[in-house]
């Protein structure tokens, strides 16, 4: 059983200013897991202690945002943003959100009724249109006369610090896609392994229940040497991998236009599984999903990494 603090830390990425959360807030987040909910619109309000300064303070979940050029628009760069009230009385608080063009943000403002000490948070999507030049752009969060600037570093995928993960932000092709847009295939290479973003754009759910196999392939851009693939499947307290995750799959690599099976996973009940194999030079990695755990059988993948 994870602690509430751990669950929140995973759910919100950062927030040094995050104050104690209510159990109701955490329950809501868990209950939302399997149900579609537009991430750009969902807003969370959490209580805390007011400093009584009378001001509203913009908050960002990270010091900077890295936004790759040319990725699938279904999987834009994301940042947690928020607004904290240190007012003496409850009030409606509004924060303006602006980003240097041609970048676009998923919301122009964040507004909420906030009791003293409370904080409102939301996920902001920052899109990089085709043709955007590499460079640093500014995201500005403004409230109560104070502005928080967050640099947005726009870089080509080849320029990303991928930590050795060759799959990060590469093109993904899936055998099917759920009718709900919150399960895009590109989400399996967005760098976010956490199941907390499930149904919020952070994992792929295929469209063919109880029909197998399902496939999802990642083009690596160039011929790369690969000897390890890690797969993260849906795994939360409420929706554990042992009932909702992927059970059986093959790991394949493409060599000379032909798919070769380099590893097989059978009977998995964990949230993540690592496959090691003899190094092979390949230009694409594919997961062939053969079965999942539980009755409502879909393929649910949060992230795939290749090294
Ligand atoms: Ca992901």
UniProtKB/TrEMBL annotation:
Pfam families the record matches: F5_F8_type_C
Region (Disordered): 26-52
Tree of life domain: Bacteria
UniProt keyword Signal present: yes
Keywords noted in UniProt: Signal
Keyword match Protein transport: no
Protein name per the record: F5/8 type C domain-containing protein
Signal peptide: 1-20
F5/8 type C domain: residues covered: 153-307
InterPro entries: FA58C, Galactose-bd-like_sf
């Amino acid at each position: 059983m994870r602690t509430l603090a751990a669950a929140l830390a995973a759910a919100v990425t950062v927030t040094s200013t995050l104050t104690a959360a209510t159990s109701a807030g955490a329950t809501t987040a868990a209950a939302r897991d399997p149900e579609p909910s537009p991430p750009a619109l969902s807003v969370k309000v959490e209580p805390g202690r007011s400093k009584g300064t009378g001001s509203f303070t913009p908050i960002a979940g990270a010091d900077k945002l890295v936004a790759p050029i040319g990725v699938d628009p279904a999987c834009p760069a994301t940042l947690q943003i928020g607004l904290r009230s240190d007012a003496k009385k409850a009030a409606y608080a509004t924060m303006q959100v602006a980003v240097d063009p041609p970048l676009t943000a998923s919301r122009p403002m964040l507004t909420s009724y906030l009791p003293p000490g409370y904080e409102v948070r939301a996920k902001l999507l920052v899109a990089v249109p085709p043709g955007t030049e590499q460079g640093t752009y500014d995201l500005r969060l403004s409230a109560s006369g104070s502005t928080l600037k967050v640099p947005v570093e726009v870089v080509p995928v080849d320029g990303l610090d991928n930590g050795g993960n060759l799959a990060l932000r590469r093109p993904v092709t899936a055998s099917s896609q759920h009718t709900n847009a919150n399960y895009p295939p590109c989400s399996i290479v967005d760098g976010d392994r956490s199941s907390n973003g499930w149904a919020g754009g952070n994992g792929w759910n295929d469209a063919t229940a109880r029909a197998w196999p399902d496939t999802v392939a990642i083009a690596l851009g160039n011929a790369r040497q690969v000897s390890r693939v890690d797969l993260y499947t849906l795994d939360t307290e409420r929706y554990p991998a042992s009932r909702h995750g992927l059970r059986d799959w093959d790991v394949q690599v493409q060599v000379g236009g032909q798919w070769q099976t380099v590893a097989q996973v059978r009977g998995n009940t964990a949230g993540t599984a690592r496959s090691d194999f003899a190094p092979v030079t390949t230009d694409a990695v594919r997961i062939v999903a053969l079965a999942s755990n539980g009755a409502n059988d879909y393929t649910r993948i949060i992230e795939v990494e290749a090294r």
